[in-house]
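Researcher: Here's the sequence for the chain we discussed earlier.
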Amino acid sequence: MSQPKKQLKKMPRPLLWLWARFARYWHANWWNKVVTTGVVVAALCVGGMYSVAVWYQHSQKGKPSTLGVTFIADYASYLGVDAHQNYTAILDDLHVKHLRLVSYWSDIEPVQGTYNFDELDWEMAQAQTHGAKVTLAVGLRQPRWPECHAPSWADTSKAGNTWEPQLNAYITAVVDRYKNNPALESYQLENEFYLNAFGQCNNFDRTRLATELALVKKLDPSRPVIMSRSNNYAGFSLKQPLPDVVGISIYRHVWSGPIRHYLTYPFPSWYYAFLAGAEKILTGKPSIVHELQAEPWPPDGQGILNTSLAEQNKTFNAQTLKSTVHFGQQTGVKDVDLWGAEYWYYRAQVLHDPSVWNAARQVFAEQSNQ
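Model: Thanks. This is the structure I predict for it:
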């Protein structure tokens, strides 16, 4: 008797039965071989991803964490609340200690060559007074619709040489103004730069991004520059230009146009741990969650002002905020900025429902006690 047959004889009867069934399935036809191979490869891939995620989560244990918010005065005003009251409530009531602020080109330079820093000066001063740290978004593409915030006098649909020098001049003005501010911790350059399926943007030139990164690093070499990938994107930042820190955005409860229904992405928290861990292994770059969804996603691109509270609750409420923060913590990523602080205040002040604001107060209190 051959050696393989002797080994089969020694197998327990249940395993021997399974082996025989598998052998018959494998040899039945070529399609069975394809399916089996696909299942095995998929299992190995998922197992590898999970292993990287567990390694990353373990490597992050014991490290200090931050929980912050993005604040955009323009959006607060759009919602009909006083932007300054909204901002000071974030600092005084929620006691937020990390902020992602914006420097829209359209706001800073509404008239070519004339800069208006009044709003951003005030925001930075308030952050400094309250001992909060700031990530400052710079560049053409920054958070919130229409994503690319060019002033009316700059036509970014034309050749780059007609407007990129002016864009670089604006970036220079912003960095030079705030690089000595002790509240400034980092920059975010060009929010989700390569996401061409969303927003009113025309230019996705990698060379321009590299030029802007080099410019910011030259003007302020002491602070890290964050560049971000789009929601749930499984790729990695491998090509130049490479940032100092990679930003991950996480949106879980959304409206899906193709299926005409709300959708909760099935990705578990360890998936994002895998993204951060693989980035660390492949490039040595740390990751942050720079945008964790903490506001509703209305259907069909409908504005929040035209969406009933009952409809808003289908994708976000006070309990969702708490579970979302918990989800973000489960990823193992230690620096997380929540997306929607203006909405929380709007919901409390305009819709007279303080439940989300109160939940935010609770989660930030818990964060400060860690």
